[in-house]
Amino acid sequence: MASEEELFANIDALLAEEPQLPPPAERARLREAAGITQARLAQALKSTTQTVKNWENGRSEPKPPRLEAYQRLLKGWAAKYPAHGAPAAVPAPVAAPPQPVVPQTFTGPAATEPAEAAAPAQAPATPAAAERLARPVATSRRPAAKKAAKPATDSRFPHGPLAVLDDDGSAYGVDGIVLDCPATTVPELVEWTLKESGLGAAKLNRYGKDSDPLIVLTAAAGVKLGLPERLEGHEQRRSLRLPEDHPVVKQVAKAKWQLTQRGFGPWARIYRKAQGRDRQCVQLAILSWDALDERSWPGVSEMEPADIARVLGVYAQRVITPRGSTAVSGLELMTALRPPTKAVQDPGTGNWVSGYNAGSLGAEPMDPAPPEATPEHPVVVNSGWTGGFLNEEAYQWVRSVETLTDEECTLPFAVGLDLNTAFLAAAARLTVGLSAPDHFHGPKFNPKIPGSWLVDLSHIELDPRLPSPFTPDGTSPAGPAWYQTHTLAYAQELGHDVHPIEAYLRRETGAYLDPWHDRLKNAYVDTLADLGVTRDLDDRQFLAAMERHKQADPALAAVLSAIKATVKGGVGKLRERPQGRHYKEGERWPALQRPTWRPDIRAAVISKARVNMHRKLNNMVKMTGLYPLAVLSDCVVYPSPGQSPLDFLPYAASGKPQPGGFRLGPTPGLAKLEGVQSMLWAVGLMEKGLNPARHIKGGDAVLDEGE
Predict the structure, then answer these.
(1) What percentage of the chain has pLDDT greater than the value 90?
(2) For the whole model, what pTM was predicted?
(3) 3-state secondary structure 154-173
(4) SS3 71
(5) Residues with Cβ < 8 Å from 675, sequence gap 6 or more?
């Protein structure tokens, strides 16, 4: 920190310059030319405020007039000369929350308007909140990207859904605002968040609940609040928790706050029981405890706090305020869009009571049918079930090298195609069961009824150059097996008879995942568009845009990665397995208490995704005569005369893509280039029994099996 003499010298120089300040427009131009950014104003104000605090804490005499004048000058500049393109701050009434100043380099997130958004209610702001200063902040220097119109701001949550807290008390929010947070303990942080921060988000459905505010702690902020910088132990770090006798846990309990059963881990939820309709809950995410998994949020935990706030803010406004891993958020989004209950009027008393919300999964957990469960599930263990299980999983298939022709082997390249968010595409207009399963013997197959059917498909002859549509490994069925409705409906589509032996079917049905699909599809397409990959590009332009989209804006590229992980993880959470070394077979594990523990819905999504893939493979044979080399979930590898998909995909004489096969494009279900290798490389892997689709990108692909 500068000495007192140097500080006062700078003050005198700045005060002398102040009367000669040019007009705002000219000043903005000069500021850019000289490289004097809004960040310097923010940094100067921060250091001066700290100097004032130090003066007040260590001196008995009043502050020098020059120091007070410098403070006023900096605050005035921040208000009078906001970053280029941002409106000047307007003085607010004393009771209003602090008004943010938008920095020049920030591109705010856009969100799709929820179909059933709640009408915002005006909440009173505290005087303490009004006195706090919302400061400008500069993020990384990137050209501003085009953005869609932002949704109307909810007056109850003027500062957005979340903030990233650093150790100097700066809480970085969306749209570039920075709030001053005076908290020095976790209970103080919770109180400040609920009473003064203006953070939170409106519910996504009229019958749902507002999103709790999220505070993300940097490593230094966590240490300042008394948390260890790292959680150490034998288990995965994301599974670790603070011990109950840790001082911070004791502070939380002493202040009469509660922790959920998850305890104080990387994603800690701190709450008190709701008073009437008002929730009192704050979500914390600790960055140094691996709250943001590198696979789902690549590079985000290493970003500056303002950029982390930007990434999470875009995700929150387009998807949902993060409440845990992307898998947890994917599951929470289902419930937020289809709340289990709504207020209904009791005809007898006239009182309003909680009732079932049609189209949802209800408020109580539901046991699956034995073949839909996992081997360790109580339904299986307690009944002694030995009738087999549903095996609807993603493809892991490699073609036998004996089926390769000389013509295929002489082609120079192997090209991998990847389907965009294949599980999300499968969730569109997907009818699933909403009620408990009923057991039937010898039923007639009906492709419109969701459920699990025991059928023998082993008599069906299949082309060995294509994977079987009925099994994940692509081999022919060996005898009677359990199948989800979509798999059998596709068997009928291919012209085969289907005669079920028995079935577990659901009478009440609905397109439960429709709003989930629609919101995530919009988030995916809009984020790709912000990265320069738009729907109006032709196939050649699309391939070029996809090559450079991650470099266009690393922050938005991380949002795109998180959206894809939300889809896969959300589907996987529908059949979450027991965790921990102490679990014993036959016990109920925590996930079974959720209405969203629905392995039958997971099976329906994966079955439809696998059927969609096989349909395209079959159509490619009819249109081009090409057979795939391998398939891994939503990635397929083809032999090709060139290094581009354009060299083998089917196109009409007009130049338009042929419908039915693989088509390039940015929307869910369309394809993009996954990678290119030599045909010799692919055949070498196939001879070893390895899957070229796993390595075509140049690394080891992650199997998208919804786990």
Answers:
(1) 72
(2) 0.80
(3) CCCCCCCCEEEECCCCEEEE
(4) helix
(5) 415, 416, 696, 697, 698
